[in-house]
Amino acid sequence: QVQLVESGGGLVQAGGSLRLSCAASGRIFVITDMGWYRQAPGKQRELVATITSRGTTNYADAVKGRFTISRDNAKNTRSLQMNSLKPEDTAVYYCFANVYPLGAASSDYWGQGTQVTVSS
Prior knowledge:
By secondary structure, the chain is an all-beta fold. It contains no helices and eleven strands.
């Protein structure tokens, strides 16, 4: 019913920047919360940043001041600007959305993941 398509990511040197985008499509009534989680090898998936449809943001302490999440409610997209990247930011980044599909209860949806690699 709902699909999340990510773009961006790649390889960058420490101190560099990358931008991730995620677009939601399908039978969407409303998106209540949307953003990114990440998972590094051997570690659990963790929150990076999310933003509600009203603009309330939530950032992991590790990325505060370096990452900025933004939204375009009309296009059902979210973007994550990542600056001052560190090797410890290396992970697979997954787009996440909590969505009320048309005529259905809310559910969590995940993108396929995009690799971010920061070299030292």
